[in-house]
Automatic annotation (TrEMBL):
This is Peptidase A1 domain-containing protein. One of its GO terms (biological process) is proteolysis. Belongs to the peptidase A1 family. Residues 1-74 form the Peptidase A1 domain. GO terms for molecular function: aspartic-type endopeptidase activity.
Length: 86
């Protein structure tokens, strides 16, 4: 997508940013002239603190460590010249 957008970072347990959303993982083309931010407002009383959608997970590897109940994200796979569809 040929659009400049800001980067959004999600912190981990501390204040350090653990996962960054960039470009195509944040935007969705609706039509030839309309591009929307691909996030949904949880409302005034959300049931969950955060829900990560499949659009944001595209081209990232997610690791679940069941023994420590932690979750980790890879760098965007595009930085490694690959993606989830290859």
């Amino acid at each position: 997508m040929d659009v400049s957008v800001m980067e959004i970072g999600l912190p981990g347990n501390g204040k350090e940013v653990k996962w960054r959303f960039q470009g195509a993982n944040m935007m969705e083309r609706v039509s030839e002239t309309v591009i929307c931010l691909a996030f949904v407002d949880g409302g005034k009383k959300p049931n969950e603190s955060m829900v990560i959608g499949t659009h944001q997970l595209q081209d990232y590897l997610v690791e679940f460590d069941l023994s420590t109940t932690q979750m980790a994200f890879s760098d965007p796979l595009i930085l490694h010249n690959t993606n989830c569809s290859t």
